[in-house]
C-alpha cells in the first residue's frame, strides 16, 4: 500500500511474504572471448572435448544456479507454511527513501489490519505508531531504504 505523509515523503507499507536472495548480477553476460584451442583444430577428440567442456560449463553455469534457486524457493515456501500454519509472526514494513520501520505481527488477519493502520498513521505523519498486538522491530533490524 503506497501513501504519502504530510512532508511529501512516499511510503510503501506491506508484509514481507517471501525472501529470496538476489544472486544474479544485472548486466553480466557470459562470453567466449579469449577461448581459443588451436591444438584441437581438426580432430574428433577436439569435438568431443569441446562438447564435454560445453556440457560441464552448462551444468556449472546453468544447472548449479538452477538447483540453488530451486532450493531457495523450497526454503521460502517452507517458511510461508510455517508462518501461516504455525503462527510465526509476519514482518510488516513501512519503507521510504528516508528509511524504514518494521513491526512483528502474529496472525494473517492481524497483519493485514496492521498494514492498513500503519498506512493511515504514515499518512498523518505518526512515525511512532504501533498497531495493536504488534512488536516494534528495533532500529538496527529495521528495513533498508528504497532505491
Quick synopsis:
The protein has two helices and five strands, in the order ββαββαβ. The chain has about 150 residues and is of the alpha+beta class.
Structural write-up:
The protein is α+β, with helices and mostly antiparallel strands and 147 residues long. It folds into two domains: 70 residues, no CATH class; 46 residues. The protein is 39% helix and 18% strand. Strands 1-2-3-4-5 form a five-stranded antiparallel sheet, covered by helices on one side. The protein starts with a strand and ends in an 11-residue tail after the last strand.
Supply the key terms.
147 residues; alpha+beta; five-stranded antiparallel beta sheet; 39% helix; 18% strand
Note the gap between the termini. Answer: 17 Å
Point out poorly predicted stretches.
none
Provide the residue-averaged pLDDT: 79
By secondary-structure content and strand pairing, the structural class works out as alpha+beta
The radius of gyration over CA amounts to 24 Å
Number of helices: 2
Assess the beta-strand content as a share of residues: 15-25%
Any chance you could write out the topology, listing elements then pairs?
Layout: E1 2-4, E2 10-15, H1 44-85, E3 90-96, E4 99-105, H2 108-123, E5 134-136
